[in-house]
Amino acid sequence: MKRERKIALGERGLLSSGRKFAGAGFGVWPRRTIIAAMAALLLLPIEVSDAGWLSDVFKSSSKQSKSPKHVASPKPHTARLAARRPAASNPSASKPVAICDPSKFRIVVDVGHTAASEGATSARNVAEFTFNLRLAQRIEQKLKADGFAETRLLVTEGKARPSLVKRVTAANDLHADLFLSIHHDSVPDKLLEDWEFEGKKSHFSDRFSGYSVFVSRDNPDFKTSLAFAELVAKEMKAEGLQYAKQYTLPIMGHYQHPLLDKENGVYSYDDLVVLKKTRMPAVLLEAGSIINRDEELQMASPERRNIISSAVTAAVKEFCDPRWAILGPL
Fold first, then answer.
1. pTM recorded for the entire structure
2. Which long-range contacts (CB under 8 A, 24 or more apart) does 34-42 make?
3. What are the two backbone dihedrals, phi and then psi, of residue 203, each rounded to the nearest 5 degrees?
């Protein structure tokens, strides 16, 4: 699916969801200026400033400076935790960003729930765990194919509560750089309606649909968790998907959560064990609603899994190297 994605200049560098200059405010610059900027991108050191480096390129081309600016020497590259960035809510906290090595950057793709504790049941009586496993496997394949060879698929066994502790321990023991838990959504029981599918009593709710992304403000690296969550949500939206808006409604009861990113659909879920107990940035993706009868069919298709895996992979690439958003693979 082709996507038109606007370039956003933020305090995390170019944490955008697009690669085109056209339509992003660059049309007034001469071609030579743009070419010079792109050349500068390719010649950047292993670390770059979180904010302002591209605007400096254009400023220097439009007016002469009386004296050259002092350029600080880059710090040594560190492979671990290389792409950590402050959240958008605090521009003054901007720090240098180390560009990660995809071949060493370790992402844990966690399959939500277990075979013994399968999570929600879809409108057509399919266990959420089945949806989670298929999508997580596709995301793992896509990430590895795009150079993230250290991606790990995490499948946990056991009952619900003990399995949460197991998966957190496993992720921490793997010394992951990112943790992404894959789930599919439902609604509180009070919102379910009855219907019959293939002769069996089933439940559905067609009122709500869409993806949602969750972080915990109690995660030891909440700012980076939020930065990655925003990228995932932006990429999902760029693929033409809509986020689920019901979590702000009182009707959701104790499933109601604060909306941190109103544009793209990032919520806080502070007490969720897999988000607050992991020692690395952690994000949970509810990929879509399987209790919505139409969306369930979409979520079951290889086409939708490909779309979501592409969105996640693009988010990881931008997180790992902000320049990818403009120039593509470097």
1. 0.72
2. 36/61, 37/61, 38/326, 38/327, 41/323, 41/326, 41/327, 42/327, 42/330
3. -135, 150
Tokens at 268, concatenated: 């806080």
Per DSSP, what are the bridge partners of residue 214?
267, 284
Strands 178-185 and 107-111 turn out to be parallel
**DSSP secondary structure letter of residue 73:** P
Q: Quickly list H helices, the chain.
A: 31-42, 53-62, 128-145, 160-173, 222-238, 273-276, 293-299, 302-320, 324-327
**300 by DSSP, 3-state: which?**
coil
Closest CA to 283 of 316, 256, 249, 324: 316
- Under 8 Å between Cβ of 156 and 166: yes
The CATH code of domain 107-320 reads: 3.40.630.40
Please calculate the CA angle 242-178-330 and round it to the nearest 5 degrees: 85
What confidence tens digit (pLDDT) does each residue in 56-78 have? 333 333 344 444 433 333 333 33
| CA–centroid distance for 330 within its chain | 21
Tokens 């869409």 correspond to what residue?
210
Note the pLDDT tens digit of each residue in 262-280.
999 999 999 999 999 999 9
